[in-house]
Design a protein that fits this description.
This is Cysteine protease. By secondary structure, this protein is of the alpha+beta class. It has a domain at 1-36 and 50-116 and 131-187. The chain contains 7 helices and 9 strands. The strands form 2 sheets. The chain has a 7-stranded mixed sheet. β5 and β6 (108-112) form a beta hairpin. The longest helix is centred in the C-terminal third of the chain and has 16 residues, at 159-174.
């Protein structure tokens, strides 16, 4: 949610950040976000119009794939996501140790550690040493050690790429799966709150650790006074 809000201030890159909530990707919702609103102007430059017809999309799908440990039923699907050309990897890691997952070899995940400290680079030098920008090799970890809280990340530069991602997702991650990673739907269910309301509610939960209640709902609760309790042994009777 923070990345999504910050992207609104980025004037150099017209990128749409979409966070799919509650394990549900809503296709029409994303397309409406990535397509600029019609302004009624007649621009004869077709090439410029094509570029403006779709804003590049960065899609985050937060998931919880287990309670304290990740459920092995998701291993196959997780590894499949790395094979998609739209994949940006997975935000995840071990408990209390965030990592950036960029691929897999069998049941081992290829990971980068964003917390590795590096020597600073002197930008005033004519030929700056950029060796600290890279790592000589990527680390690996067994997929079974992955914390169940993760976020899948995808990038779609055009609407065609997004449509292709939807088709790949349905065929590879949803069709025939007993327990899919997430759901893909064309329209937002009518009984759901709006996307903005859902984002704001989840942001509040993350910030406070508790869900937010409507003020009218809060008024319906009555605080009860503690009852006078007598904990003496006379109040209890043993049945034999």
């Amino acid at each position: 949610a923070i990345i999504r809000k910050l992207s609104a201030y980025d004037k150099c890159n017209d990128i749409v950040i979409h966070v799919a909530m509650d394990n549900m990707v809503v296709i029409d919702e994303i397309k409406n976000s990535c397509k600029p609103q019609e302004n009624g102007t007649d621009d004869s430059d077709n090439e410029a119009n094509d570029k403006k017809s779709w804003k590049p999309l960065v899609l985050f799908i937060p998931l919880r794939l287990g309670l304290s440990e990740i459920n092995p039923i998701y291993f196959k699907s997780l590894k499949t996501t790395f094979a998609m050309k739209q994949s940006l990897g997975i935000i995840g890691g071990r408990p209390n140790h965030a990592l950036y997952l960029i691929g897999c070899v069998a049941n081992e995940l290829v990971v980068l550690d964003p917390h590795t400290t590096q020597p600073f680079v002197d930008l005033e030098e004519a030929e700056a040493d950029d060796s600290t920008y890279h790592c000589p090799r990527a680390s690996r970890m067994d997929i079974s050690l992955l914390d169940p809280s993760i976020a899948l990340c995808f990038y779609c530069d055009t609407e065609e790429e997004f449509d292709n991602w939807c088709q790949l997702t349905y065929k590879a991650l949803i069709l025939g799966e007993k327990q899919s990673l997430f759901e893909l739907t064309k329209e937002r269910p009518s009984h759901w709150p709006s996307y903005e309301e859902q984002i704001d509610a989840n942001t509040a939960i993350v910030s406070t650790g508790t869900s937010t209640l409507n003020s009218n709902t809060c008024e319906s609760f009555t605080e009860l006074e503690d009852a006078n309790r007598d904990d003496s042994d006379e109040e209890f009777e043993l049945l034999g």
